[in-house]
Write a structure and sequence with these properties.
This protein has 66 residues and is mainly α. It has two helices and no strands. 26% of the residues lie in helices and 0% in strands.
Length: 66
Amino acid sequence: MELLRGVRGSNLTAGELLRSQNWIAPLDVLAEATFVPPPAAEVPDALDALLKFVHNDTLPLLIISI
């Protein structure tokens, strides 16, 4: 990928879903995490649900515009 050439993380799998759990926490301590996303195994289903929600034509215009 051109955007990642020569930068930190250029060896990672840009654009692919994570295969392991991650979280946001100081010093990488899970017990102090401020955000823990869904487990990697649940992400494909969660993304599918999000896409179905976004493409729902019966939503009020205000919600669609956000």
